[in-house]
């Protein structure tokens, strides 16, 4: 057989696999286990078919048995998991972007991705000092360049000294470069006034990575029941997705929307009692400042939460990635560890993991992927297993670690880069605070909208009323009403928000999450466009 | 209560958790489920205790029940998993490094980490062009710098054009930046002469990440039995670790050491029959070039493997991260995909995932973390689930993607950086080839050592004989003989290799894996030192 002929055979047979996808989206057959949400995912994978005839012909020759791995026998936990922030709405938004590029006429000129806390994507500028240190570690020849300030060079030299062979291209220890772990520990210690041992600090490729590593430890069934994890509702969907993936039980507690999304202990008690029916509740997740809700917990609220966790023997998991993002002048950030330690024994002995990221705050370096976990009071036998479990992945990206070094070891007042660093940091945080107020105020001026103030974080999660006719129309399309609304908004305005059902909400209420990240002019346009859309929507469905 | 007093309370109670670790390493109590290997891990976590009295006093006040998460109830799959490349030997090597730093006298002055394929750590220089493109994407102001070549600038401009907001600090799509996926597809297509659709390419934070994502899909028990995954023995321990973590069944097939570690189909048949007793074998892993064995599969061998996989309905998983590392002049790299496609139907319709990394080859950018998976003929419903499953982790590091872009879209002959790029690439590969021969020849000159030629990859996996007395001494210490040997070697010479039992070996045979990565002078010193050690060892235990 000649080479050419073989290649031809390949080309002839190769696109068949794709065509099976078309069955899913054109409704010929939808796998029983395929969640509705994933259909859109399939759509994006499918190549356009030239004609339905071709499509039907190829179907006839293809039996289900041909594939080893199918929608029916794939890991069911992954079938079940959903991650709304990157779900069907975003997939459609990306398609619309391509349609715009192809010149398809739309009532708008660009898609505004308010779905994800992605600051640089929305025009936020990187922190100069952070990028300088990164560039110096990537190309150490720049250490001779007089245009780079000495403090950036000193940081880079110290980090390279901690890299094997003096290169960011060598693996670090799995828990991260020791020097950077020490800087993180020093940062936490100064933040809290409480000792922090660098050996409790594990660097990771983003906070999500750290959170998953810790939740994985609980993946053991005890007396046939899975571990239960208490998470706020609304929650950040990393939690629901990870619990589904690991087969852990999600035990939701509602935040109190009527009281600025505060956390009520009585609701924790209710949720725990409910969770005990089907699981062994072992973990309590607190997101502070809140995502998607933007609430900032008071110190006394955190004390109550700690007492509750102690009483019920819950491992505390504190998602504190928005600790720099506090906009409400009455509020401040209280680390769960600090509060727990200051409460003294027995609370100071409780097990806790807290998480931080380079993706949020004032730096917004999402794409670089960096984070840390601080693991407090963990059984050393478990800590050894945690360290072992991350070792097969070798190490988190060293450049993410470098960025985390800058975040935890920023320029000091006597250093040359201090002034610019502080100006950039403050300007970003100041602007985020202004935009958070702008978003909340504008949303509250729309008929039927009610938004709590964004005390912190990067999102607003307004509640809005939907007319009965819209709810009926959504049902007719097999969509939940908030998802129906979000799709309509996207198609009409190019604004991509995430429907509340992706985060969880009380039954019968409708929300979406929008970021406050588009730059000032764009966010004004976006809000006006949203307002107009909503008024039009109400007319259409009233 | 005053703040100061509370802080004191904390300090008094805080180190207790650590002291429990001391129980584990001082032998007071070792958790039944704690694998022996992890003890050393615990040692490294423990702070030195001021006195045993303090230690015993604190023990009395601490009951097992205090911890929520313990060595007994932690996820048992993680308890079981081992990753020898970063196990107790490396932990001890890192301790020895610290002892040397503290001035502890040793018969050597430095630890040589021949345990891991970490080229830059061993003095290999980064590829200039790759680092230039990285620096330009990190600090786009450098795009105006005349010292950077135009082709590097063009790459950087194109990549930044594919980043949202023009910043590597924004999230990419979960499967990676479209432009870079297209470059990867183009690279594969040119390599194989077979079409490659960029939508089949998923970028990842290193190949390990991609491999785990695909293996996870098989994590469904069918008729109560786990999926079986055929892996070579010896194997790269990512596989044994991942299978243990996911609860998949490891079905080992032995490579034929007598015939240059070749892969015999009769052995595959034997292993499969064995595997069927306890699992549903669904996946066949091929590592080519081999890790730790360095074998390069012939084309006809690959054809046989493909026929075997087709006959038994096995999903092919091709770990091809060493595709650039071929040293044997008689051998060349044949991608499983290319062979499968050229064989025509029905083989060309088989499901396959193949993996590549920026950590190996001539670039050795381990710390940056970049890799890709090419997913061929996957059921679109499964592909949608795979994409969904990686979305909760948001995206692989964008800078790892940038490095992968350079690897798959290197300077072209007419571009200004071409000459230097090719010189650097060839010099590195040439030097690796020389060192591979040096290592093999020297090992074969040691009494009782037998090493196959390293046809490719970055390792040699010699077999060596151990005297009966050494085997007894190992048993007395509760170590397997090869681990005993590797520890002795480490303590005597500072050379850190990984014992063969971490990779798997035929019972009664002893091996270790060493990299060929130390630079030429250092590798000579290392080999001499190893030879002297072995002769001394034989004397001591004869």
UniProtKB/TrEMBL annotation, chains A, B:
Gene designation per UniProt: LOC107267758
Superkingdom to which the source organism belongs: Eukaryota
Name of the protein in question: alanine transaminase
Pfam families, per database record: Aminotran_1_2
Record keywords: Aminotransferase, Pyridoxal phosphate, Transferase
Subunit structure: Homodimer.
Organism of provenance: Cephus cinctus (Wheat stem sawfly)
Family affiliation: Belongs to the class-I pyridoxal-phosphate-dependent aminotransferase family. Alanine aminotransferase subfamily.
Enzyme Commission designation: 2.6.1.2
InterPro entries named in the record: ALAT1/2-like (IPR045088), Aminotransferase_I/II_large (IPR004839), PyrdxlP-dep_Trfase (IPR015424), PyrdxlP-dep_Trfase_major (IPR015421), PyrdxlP-dep_Trfase_small (IPR015422)
Catalytic reaction annotation: L-alanine + 2-oxoglutarate = pyruvate + L-glutamate
Keyword Plastid assigned: no
Pathway: Amino-acid degradation; L-alanine degradation via transaminase pathway; pyruvate from L-alanine: step 1/1
Aminotransferase class I/classII large domain segment(s): 164-523
One example GO MF annotation: L-alanine:2-oxoglutarate aminotransferase activity
Cofactor(s) needed by this chain: pyridoxal 5'-phosphate
Keyword Transferase: yes
């Amino acid at each position: 057989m000649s080479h050419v002929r073989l290649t031809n055979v390949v080309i002839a047979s190769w696109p068949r696999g794709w065509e099976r996808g078309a069955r899913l989206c054109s409704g010929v057959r939808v796998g029983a286990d395929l969640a509705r949400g994933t259909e859109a995912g399939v759509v994006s994978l499918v190549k356009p078919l030239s004609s339905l005839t071709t499509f039907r012909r190829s179907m006839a020759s293809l039996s289900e048995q041909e594939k080893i791995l199918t929608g029916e026998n794939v890991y069911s936990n992954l079938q079940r998991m959903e991650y709304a922030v990157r779900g069907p709405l975003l997939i459609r938004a990306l398609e619309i972007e391509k349609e715009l590029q192809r010149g398809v006429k739309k009532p708008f000129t660009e898609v505004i991705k308010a779905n994800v806390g992605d600051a640089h994507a929305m025009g936020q500028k990187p922190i100069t000092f952070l990028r300088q240190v990164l560039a110096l570690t990537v190309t150490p020849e720049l250490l001779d360049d007089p245009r780079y300030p000495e403090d950036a060079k000193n940081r880079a030299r110290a980090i390279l000294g901690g890299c094997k062979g003096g290169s960011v291209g060598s693996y670090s220890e799995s828990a991260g470069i020791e020097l950077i772990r020490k800087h993180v520990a020093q940062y936490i210690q100064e933040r809290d006034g409480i000792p922090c041992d660098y050996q409790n600090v594990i660097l990771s490729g983003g906070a999500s990575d750290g959170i998953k590593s810790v939740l994985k430890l609980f993946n053991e069934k005890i007396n046939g029941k899975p571990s239960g994890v208490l998470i706020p509702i609304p929650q950040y969907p990393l939690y629901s997705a990870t619990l589904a993936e690991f087969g852990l039980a999600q035990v939701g507690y509602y935040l109190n929307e009527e009281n600025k999304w505060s956390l009520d202990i009585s609701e924790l008690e209710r949720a725990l009692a409910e969770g005990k029916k089907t699981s062994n509740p072992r973990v309590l997740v607190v997101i502070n400042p809140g995502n998607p809700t933007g609430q900032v917990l008071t110190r006394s609220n955190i004390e109550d939460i700690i007492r509750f966790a102690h009483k019920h023997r819950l491992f505390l998991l504190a998602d504190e990635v928005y600790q720099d993002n506090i906009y409400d002048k009455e509020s401040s950030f209280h680390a769960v560890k600090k509060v727990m330690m200051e409460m003294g024994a027995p609370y100071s002995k409780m097990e806790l993991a807290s998480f931080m990221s380079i993706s949020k705050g004032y730096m917004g370096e999402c794409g670089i992927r960096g984070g840390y976990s601080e693991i407090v009071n963990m059984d050393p036998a478990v800590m050894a297993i945690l360290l072992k479990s991350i070792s097969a992945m070798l190490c988190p990206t060293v450049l993410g670690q470098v960025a985390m070094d800058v975040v935890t070891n920023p320029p000091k007042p006597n250093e040359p880069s201090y002034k610019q660093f502080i100006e950039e940091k403050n300007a970003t945080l100041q602007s985020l605070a202004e935009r958070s107020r702008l978003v909340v105020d504008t949303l509250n001026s729309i008929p039927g909208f009610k938004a709590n103030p964004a005390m912190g974080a990067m999102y607003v999660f307004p509640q809005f009323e939907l007319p009965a006719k819209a709810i009926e129309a959504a049902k007719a399309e097999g969509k939940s009403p908030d998802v129906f609304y979000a799709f309509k908004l996207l198609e009409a305005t190019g604004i991509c928000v995430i429907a509340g059902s992706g985060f969880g909400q009380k039954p019968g209420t409708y929300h979406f999450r929008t970021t406050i990240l588009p730059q000032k002019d764009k966010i004004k346009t976006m809000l006006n466009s949203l307002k107009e859309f909503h008024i039009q929507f109400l007319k259409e469905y009233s």
